[in-house]
Structure formats: structure tokens, C-alpha cells
Write a structure and sequence with these properties.
About 30% of the residues lie in helices and about 30% in strands. It is built from four helices and five strands; from the N terminus they run E-H-H-H-E-E-H-E-E. Strands 2-3-1-4-5 form a five-stranded antiparallel β-sheet. The radius of gyration is 17 Å and the shape is elongated. About 35% of the residues are buried.
């Protein structure tokens, strides 16, 4: 069984030393969704939500969150992200909004947590901005889809 990298031999939490790792191009892609009433989705898509442009605000919140992941998740390294994109698309079949984040860095540690944090905060922002009309919204399916780079190479979720 693989051991946890953030736990030392005595069982104490520690930040992993990445100093000897090679600098490589690293990419992570994560997704999530906010399920809501069809009327709530219509309100958001129409741009008539009381708090403003929900999708644009959630996109900015996700990007900002990715950049601050090390301040939110204990033991994450501060990294100089080279790119963060947050795409938010309406999905009438849910009904709701699908959120996808892609993070990139040339560095010594991965960017999975940054992508997951971007998705999570974007979804929370959507909830916050629309909760006055739909408290029953559900944030769901937050997960890593893919990561590339580093010693462990590429990984892709089997759908």
C-alpha cells in the first residue's frame, strides 16, 4: 500500500520537500456542477440575477481561489501559476451550471489542488449569488479529471 506523502515516520503532518524534484510542465483539469431549478438557471443565463453577472463573478472567484490555494489548504506549496482558466457552461439537462478549471505551471509540484479549489470556489460563488431564489441548489461532482507532468506522469479519469 502506498504511503501518504504528507505524513512523516512518526505520523506527524509535514510539507513535502520538493526541492530536488525536476521543474516540469504540469497541468490539471477538474470539474464540478451546481444543480438548480430550471427557473434559477434561466435567471442566471438571462443576466437578471439580483447580485449581478453570476457566471462572470464565479469565473473570477475561481481564478482568484486557484492563486490562493496554498493559503486555504494546509501543506500546499505556494506556486507561480502560469495559467488558470475557469469555464462555466449552462446545462439544461441538470438543470444547472457545469464548471471546469484548468491550471498550469512549470514547477516542482502538481497543480491538482489549484484546479479543484478553483472549481469548488466557483461553485460556492454561484450558490452564494443565487441562494436568495433557490436555497435547494446542490454542488456536486467536484473531481479531478486529468493531470499531466511530474514524475508520476499523466493520469486521466476513466469515465
Amino acid at each position: 500500500m502506498a504511503k501518504l506523502s504528507h505524513i512523516d515516520k512518526a505520523g506527524a503532518a509535514r510539507m513535502v520537500d520538493v526541492g530536488a524534484k525536476a521543474v516540469t510542465a504540469r497541468v490539471a483539469i477538474a470539474e464540478g456542477a451546481v444543480v438548480m431549478k430550471a427557473a434559477t438557471l434561466d435567471l442566471i443565463v438571462s443576466g437578471n440575477a439580483k447580485k449581478g453577472d453570476v457566471i462572470a463573478t464565479a469565473r473570477i472567484a475561481g481564478i482568484m481561489a486557484a492563486k490562493r490555494t496554498h493559503e486555504l489548504i494546509p501543506l500546499c506549496h505556494p506556486i507561480a501559476l502560469s495559467s488558470v482558466t475557469v469555464d462555466i457552461e449552462p446545462d439544461a439537462a441538470l438543470p444547472g451550471l457545469r464548471v471546469r478549471a484548468t491550471t498550469k505551471v512549470a514547477g516542482q509540484t502538481g497543480v491538482e489542488m489549484e484546479a479543484l479549489t478553483a472549481v469548488s470556489v466557483a461553485c460556492l460563488t454561484i450558490y452564494d449569488m443565487a441562494k436568495a431564489v433557490d436555497r435547494g441548489m446542490e454542488i456536486t461532482g467536484v473531481r479531478l479529471l486529468e493531470k499531466r507532468g511530474g514524475k508520476s506522469g499523466a493520469w486521466k479519469r476513466k469515465v
